[in-house]
Structure formats: structure tokens, C-alpha cells
Amino acid sequence: LSKAVTGQFYSVQVGDSTFTVLKRYQQLRAIGSGAQGIVCSAMDTVLGIPVAVKKLCRPFQNQTHAKRAYRELVLLKCVNHKNIIRLINVFTPQKSLEEFQDLYLVMELMDASLCQVIHMDLDHERMSYLLYQILCGIRHLHSAGIIHRDLKPSNIVVKSDCTLKILDFGLARTACTNFMMTPYVVTRYYRAPEVILGMKYKENVDLWSVGCIMAEMISHKILFPGKDYIDQWNKVIEVLGTPSLEFMNRLMETVRNYVMNKPQYPGVSFAELFPDWAFPSDSEHDKLKSKNFEC
Ligand code: AMP
């Protein structure tokens, strides 16, 4: 962590938030906001490169936020992969531990989040390349023992040359989610049943999310757009059919009672959901080299 020295920082208003950053970071412009904080693009005048500066929003407001911020920072520092966002710098403008309040992460700057790209008519090569890169990033996280559990388009960023990076490391183990809990505004459409229903999970929960993202790229519609966890579970079983008894037996009792009391659904066949015509056609190979997609 860079130590604060008076005169090294300046403050600038970004929307409702004040960014107090090292003077080397100039021309701050808001580019996004997430559950954790606000993100600006900026020019790093020392390295001469554009960067993304993320101010973590009150990281010490409670234990969950603090643990999440700590986890994020530790993982960002040790993960090194071309499909995971790279941390360039991290600093606080406060001068002592007693005053320590704000945390700023400086990362490489990308052009757009996958939310802005997912509805575009991507050709076969670009769609495959984007999905391939998500899988490479996820495989790397899995090999490091990290299960993301909350992979979604807003946590994935792309550049106009079609390169892609995963922005975060998902749900911290402490952020336990309860099926019956009142939902607050976060996107949960891409979360696997194990996560929705609070079950034991393994690496394949992330492949569920990749599948949901791929489905949305193809159909331009969210696959399981639940208003809350219960509504989302209904959407899942309407499409995939009532789960097996083996699955039911792995549920907590209260959840099992709820899930087993739902009507029986046969599910929809894959061919019906994703007919061949819905997939982008193969494009000539050399197009990839000559044309960038616009974000
Ligand atoms: P986060 O708080 O990490 O969820 O980020 C919120 C939003 O800010 C993302 O959905 C992106 O649109 C944008 N963003 C975050 N980091 C970057 C980055 N390194 N490059 C470009 N955009 C970013």
C-alpha cells in the first residue's frame, strides 16, 4: 500500500463521490459502479497509460465488506493471468491506521463491460473467442482453488480487440446467501442452483454461469431472469424440468419442502431452446484479423 504523504494527493468530485487520488492519476471520469464501489478511467502520468481507478465504497462499514475487500486485494495481488484483471497499484489517502477509511485499486483499463457486448450480433469467431477467454480465466481461478460463484456480464470486461478479463473473484465465503432472504439489488440471474439454494458447491457452479452468459449471447435474452431467488428457481425448473430425487436429497430440509412441493415440470428440450438457426453462422476466418467489433 502506498503510504500517504501530504501534497501527494488531490481531490476531485465524481458524481456523488469524492475521489482523493495520487496526483499521478489525472483526468478522472466515471465509467461504472458496482456493489463494491465506483470506477473511473484516468491517465497515469507516470507510466503514460490509461488506467481504471476503483474506490472501494466504505470497505470497513461491516465485517462482510471488510472481508470482501481484503479477499479481493489479496487475490488480485497473487493472481497473474491474462484473462484476469491486473492490479497495477493500490493506495489510501489516509495517513495513519487510525484514520484508514478508503481504499483505491488501480487496474488496467478495458473498453466496456460484457453487458454492453452481450446483446450485439457477434459472429461465430468473436463469440467463441470471448467464451474461450472466460473459460481460461475461470480455469485459472479453479486451479488456484478459487470458486467464483457470481460470474456475470457486469464482472467481465472487454477491449475492442476482443480480449477479455474477469474483474473480480466473486462471492466471499462469508457472504452466505439464504434462499428465503429478502433480495437486494444485485444481479443473480447467473448464479447456479447450488448457490441459489445454499447447497454444497464445487467448481461446476461457474460453468453454469458461463452457460447462462452463452445462452444470452445467442438468444439476446436472459435465460433465467428471476425477480428474486424464488422466482428464479421457478424459471430454472420450467426450463430444465423438475430436478432428480438425488438433487432434492442434497437440499436443506426447509428448502427441500419448498422445492418438492412445486408442480412437476418436464423441461424444454435443448433443440427447442437453442435451435440451430439461433447460432451465428461461421464467418470467413480472415475477418477476425481485419475487423474489430465496436463496443
Ligand atoms: P466493479 O465495481 O468492479 O463491479 O465494476 C463496476 C463496473 O465498472 C463494471 O461493470 C465495468 O463496467 C466498470 N469497470 C470496472 N473495472 C474496469 C476496468 N478495469 N476497465 C473498464 N471498466 C471497468
Characterization of this structure:
- The chain is of the alpha+beta class.
- It has helices at residues 63-78, 124-143, 193-196, 204-219, 229-240, 245-248, 253-260, 270-273, 287-290; strands at 9-14, 17-22, 25-33, 37-44, 49-56, 87-91, 103-108, 112-113, 156-158, 164-166.
- It has 2 domains: 13-108, Phosphorylase Kinase, domain 1, CATH 3.30.200; 112-278, Orthogonal Bundle (Transferase(Phosphotransferase), domain 1), CATH 1.10.510.
- The chain is built from 9 helices and 10 strands.
- The strands form 3 sheets. The protein has a 5-stranded antiparallel sheet with strand order 3-4-5-7-6, covered by helices on one side. A 3-stranded antiparallel sheet has the order 8-9-10, with helices on one face. Strands 1-2 form a two-stranded antiparallel sheet.
- A hairpin with a 5-residue loop joins strand 9 (156-158) and strand 10 (164-166).
- Residues 174-184 have low confidence and may be disordered.
- Residues 31-34, 36-37, 39, 52, 54, 85, 107-110, 113, 154-155, 157, 167-168 line the site of adenosine monophosphate (AMP).
- The site of adenosine monophosphate (AMP) has 20 residues, from strand 3, strand 4, strand 5 and strand 7.
User: Which residues sit in consecutive blocks of at least 5 with pLDDT less than 50?
Assistant: 174-184
State the major sheet: 5 strands, antiparallel
**Topology as a string of helices (H) and strands (E):** EEEEEHEEEHEEHHHHHHH
Range of helix content: 25-40%
Tally the beta strands: 10
The total domain count is 2
